[in-house]
Amino acid sequence: MPDVISRPRIRSGPARSVTGAAFGIAAALAVAACNDALAPRPGGPAISIVPVADSVFEGDTVRLAARVLDEAGVPDTAARVTWTVGDTTLAELVGDGVLALLQPGTVRITARSGMASATYDLGIGRLVVQRVALTPGTITMGRTDHLPVAARVLGQGDRVITGRTVAFTSDDSLVAIVPGPGSIGSTDTGLLIAVGPGSTTIRGIVDGVAGTAHVDVVVVDTTFDLTQYNGSPLPVLVAADSVVFDGVQEYDEVYAEMGTLVLSGLLQKRYQLDVWYAQYHVFQTGDTVQRELRLRFRGEIDYGVATVNADGSLAMLSEFIGPVLEHTATLQTDGYLVHYRIPGEDAFLDLGYTRVMP
Fold this sequence. Notes:
Oligomer: single chain
Number of strands: 27
Radius of gyration: 44 Å
Strand content: over 45%
Distance between the termini: 153 Å
Largest sheet: 8 strands, antiparallel, barrel
Structural class: mainly beta
Shape: rod-shaped
Order of helices and strands: HEEEEEEEEEEEEEEEEEEEEEEEEEEE
């Protein structure tokens, strides 16, 4: 008979022991599973802040979102979230999760829901001037016209930058000037004044970046000569008295002799008027009275805005003498009769100006 090779015998003791241990663990898990609804959960509610997708800058308004999970890790869309800002000089809450970003820096935002909280450090970038746009960009004006020119300062993503002071310049001050933003109380608006005929470019400059506008100035003046002074034709004697001239007393007379009224402007009618006086030394040689000119001077001068009324008369508001000096002008056949209020007095002059024919 062939030899029989005996198979190794497996001892049953250890096998029964391993099988028994596995059964015990499975039984314990089964019991735990059956009693899961009653057992305390290992974790609590959780909250996280969703990062913003793009870069943000001063002046932006952003809405943050928070993700709340309940004890089972399921999103709780009905959970109430409260927000706080660590530094209100950098950002302030203007709504539920809505922030107004005030200036560059890093601000810590905290979101809370129940006992859970999360923080988020939001970086706020500084806006850098990339473009300056002047409005209007093309301008036609009459001599003496005044026009506000606004500068729109733009940064990254064409965001509007506010609070930057714009420096205004003109390439030709004989055509137009811009005294500066302070002239009308705004850091980003300049007052453009048309000086004389021609063309020029004005510039608004912020941090080395310039915006430009083209200006054309034309002359549309209408000139009137002074022909009557308080109802009398020129020249008119207005004063006479003894005076001391070069240490010698003499008798002098003062006459209103000439003057002009100029109406100008395309965008806004403006006026400029004056009256010239002459002082003469009066003396007699034999039977002849002689007058020797001592001096000629511009005694009345004013300029400002003229509003044309429906009947053609003018309401004239001075920009030269005080903030409230006003005159009126009645339309005549060949010009205007200006009821001129004498500065500092409760008195008037009636000045008749006749149009100068071309």
